[in-house]
Amino acid sequence: TACAIIAGFLHYLFLACFFWMLVEAVMLFLMVRNLKVVNYFSSRNIKMLHLCAFGYGLPGLVVVISASVQPQGYGMHDICWLNRETGFIWSFLGPVCMIITINSVLLTWTLWVLRQKLCSVSSEVSKLKDTRLLTFKAIAQIFILGCSWVLGIFQIDSMASTMAYLFTIINSLQGAFIFLIHCLLNRQVRDEYRKIITRKTESTSHSQTSGILLTSMQPISKTG
Q: Where are the transmembrane segments (predicted)?
């Protein structure tokens, strides 16, 4: 029973990761599409509550339906995961393959829109630089959107060991790619980092200056 519960939680958490990857792909597409079309429906019009309902609610619905149809599919004799012998594993692989396909199409469409934007962009260096940065971010989204999980499908026969290593290494770096895209390459986040560092530096220098002034005033007060 404990193994089945663990398998159910893993099923839900992995699906939630992939559904949030789909949210990321849609938000990226809307942001880039908004660069080309004026007054286009942008990502800012989507409320966070709706995103959470999609990212956390739909995976729960899939797990509930799967558990209702085949409750014995959770947990095996050698591993706490979905049963592969009865084909129950497709309750996970089915949504995953669908999301990876949608993400690949959206990413290709996003790169196409950016290519058209690069062709029609003006000669301003700053605008061209921003567009190239968006292109780099879009390419890096391949790893964030979970497209690298395709490597897990090719873990068969003689390629299984190599694909397993590539699959583990690349997907383990997904958090690093998220930090790179959404923190280091985000201008607003960098400005906030800069403000915090500047504020701490100013407070440190101010305290040191106050200490020097107090030290220099002590002999004067004694002389007085």
A: 6-30, 51-69, 89-114, 134-156, 162-185
